[in-house]
Amino acid sequence: IFLFSMKIMVLEKYFEKINFTAFSIHSPYNIQLNVPLDNEFKNERMSFGGHNKPENCIALQKIAIVIPFRNRESHLKIWLHNMHPFLQKQQADYGIYVIEQHGNLPFNRAKLLNIGYKEALKEYDYNCFIFSDVDIIPMDQRNLYRCSTNPKHMAHALDKFNFRLLYATLFGGVVAFTKEQFLKVNGFSNLFWGWGGEDDDLYKRVITAGMQIERMNNIISKTKAIPHKRDPGNEDNPKSTGFQHVATRNGEPLLEKAARRMYTDGLNSLNYTFIRVMKHRLYTKVLVDIGKPE
Ligand code: UD2
């Protein structure tokens, strides 16, 4: 009886120590869109630059969240305000990298994400990369922001599309790659300037590299897309019909040759000029000059 009660006491102590925040995840997640300007998410443990890790355990994945960015301050504020508590409840070891394109030339989302991958690795031994648009916020706390055995698509159940996958090969918004998976596809293409096509190109790379796309079920994956108009400088690339992007270079349709191009266009051909890094309390911003369309 003595030994039995000792065991019970040890177990009780053990359970006391467990941080129950990890288990108290609930759904749906209460997204706040009206974030007052001076309202910053407060967490004393969080280090400058938007990096945080769990207090009571060592996370298996070290996650860099990379956001392509230009002139979207109001969305960034909302994203940060909602995503820090979300990620911390999931006991994530993570850092937030906002990669800002300098100047007014056509936006190049994919190239910025490649740069984010490289810049984040200069700071920490990240092994999982989540590439996220600044206006996409998960609605369910069970939607684990983690990498998986295959590249993961995490923005397939958007509120603006009635929580339905628009087309089977859709791979935009938020995607998660382990470091190995991202190297296997040589990152994104650097050649998509303006809106569209870069996500479809990435899909083709994943399939060409012999991997598949993973998606969690539509309920857990419910996601809010903050409504917005098309940004100046992010016009169609260069012409598209519906969801058929026909981006070209020297008259050649890029998507058609995606599989052949992926080994020479991507992380291994990335060039840019680093301007400066700014450490904010909730994120690290890297300002870059990415050149202009060829
Ligand atoms: C869709 C995709 C997106 C991308 C895009 C085509 C989903 C849910 N989203 O988004 O991932 O493939 O089509 O390129 O599938 N941005 C700025 N400033 C700008 C322009 C863009 O910060 O001037 C960033 C920002 O993070 C934004 C992202 O680029 O969220 C994508 O641009 P978008 O929101 O205009 O594109 P959207 O919503 O049509």
Give a description of the structure:
The protein is an alpha/beta fold and 294 residues long. Helix content is 23%, strand content 21%. The chain is built from 6 helices and 15 strands. The strands form 4 sheets. Strands 1, 2, 3, 4, 6, 8, 14 and 15 form an 8-stranded mixed sheet that branches. A 3-stranded mixed sheet has the order 5-9-7. The chain has a two-stranded antiparallel sheet with strand order 10-11. The longest helix has 17 residues, at 73-89. The radius of gyration is 20 Å and the shape is globular. It starts with a helix and ends in a 5-residue tail after the last strand.
Topology readout:
Elements: H1 2-17, E1 51-52, E2 62-69, H2 73-89, E3 93-101, H3 109-121, E4 128-132, E5 136-138, E6 152-153, E7 157-158, E8 174-178, H4 179-184, H5 198-208, E9 222-225, E10 240-241, E11 244-245, E12 248-249, E13 252-253, H6 258-261, E14 273-279, E15 284-289
Parallel strand pairs: 2-3, 2-4, 3-15, 7-9
Antiparallel strand pairs: 1-3, 4-8, 5-9, 6-8, 10-11, 12-13, 14-15
The chain binds uridine-diphosphate-N-acetylgalactosamine.
Uridine-diphosphate-N-acetylgalactosamine is lined by residues 67-72, 107, 109, 133-136, 155, 158, 172-173, 195-196, 198-199, 230-231, 233-234.
